[in-house]
Design a protein that fits this description.
Layout: H1 3-13, E1 19-25, E2 28-33, H2 34-50, E3 58-62, H3 67-78, E4 82-86, H4 92-102, E5 106-109, H5 112-121, E6 130-133, E7 147-149, H6 150-156, H7 163-168, E8 175-179, E9 190-193, H8 194-208, E10 215-218, H9 225-238, E11 241-244, H10 251-258, E12 262-265, H11 267-282, H12 286-301, H13 303-321, E13 328-331, H14 338-346, E14 351-353, H15 363-375
Parallel strand pairs: 1-11, 3-4, 3-5, 4-8, 5-6, 6-7, 10-11, 12-13, 13-14
Antiparallel strand pairs: 1-2, 8-9
Helix pairs in contact: 1-2, 2-3, 2-6, 4-5, 8-9, 8-15, 12-13, 12-14
Length: 379
Amino acid sequence: MELNATILSRLAGGNAAETILRKKDRGIWKAVNRGELDARVRDIGQGLLAAGFGAGDTAAVLGDTRPEFVYADLAVQGAGGASVAIHPEEESPRVAHILRAAGCRFIFVENEEQLDKVLNIRPDCPALSRIVIMDMKGLRDFDDAGCTSLQALIAAGAGQTGWDTAIAAVAADQPAVILFPRGEVSGLGRALTHGDVLLLVTSARERLGVRAGDERLAVLPMSDVTERVLGLYLALETGIISNYLESPETATENLQQVQPTVFGADAEAWERLHARITRSADAATRLQRFLYRWAIRAGQVGGPLGSLANLLVLHAVRRELGLNRLRVAYIGGSPVPPAVEHWSRALGIVIQRIDRPSPSGTPADARYLALMADADCGA
């Protein structure tokens, strides 16, 4: 069974009360269960179908990683289309290239800032027929025939009856996502079919040993395959709870609060964690600096001395970082610098490369690696 149908059917047919997403809003973590996720995806999907969007069409989502991005992404695929995630910091010319190259008919934009980008380049994107705005703050008096709010799209789809039929018609060889690696100025993108995505998710689950009930913090943009396919889709398929930042500026605080068991990030995220603790140690008392540096050396050696260092110092360091419960850490793309890797190992954290061969070396593994290379993981 193709990935998207598997995910959506499980959301509808599994434990509807099971928490699958959380988002911090105004200081409070708010949970979304499987039943609520299924309903929100269905609502947007029916709105897309009512607007004439369907099999063979393409839609983009432009904005920060947040639950609404998840709902729109899954709704596009459930309606039979292919979904394109655009990095929120891309400038208008790059956004225009992506929309033209993918032939996007629809685009979901997060807010007024992202809307302005698209309005500036809309004349250069002939296929683009509809802009859907997720957050209408500051746009109360905005009126444009080619734009609609997310709420209006949903309202227009109320009573639509073709959603279940559309999901059932999705085939394994249909494009599910189209990837445009950041920094690549041209190119037509890299399409992953539903079958490709299923293989990536299944292989990653086996490689990492993740399980239902694990928790992760989504820190990467949805345009990164490590977040979207090997983060979100892996979580939905496995039963991992995805926690979404209140804002990109609250990543440190949110990581400390969630204390995830699974952390899929990039090398830059690990470098920032290492730099933060190093700065804290440098600013500490002489005794505290000595104890920290001794503990890191002892952690690298391991054995009884490493256990003592963990008891006295390293446990508190992991808790301060938000990694005290961490069981699985992985990255794709650029490797972690050796100094950071040695430091993480001293803390008892092994960062796995999700885009490297597994010990098994099976034909499925070879296909997985080929797809990862084609997706330009971590770009």
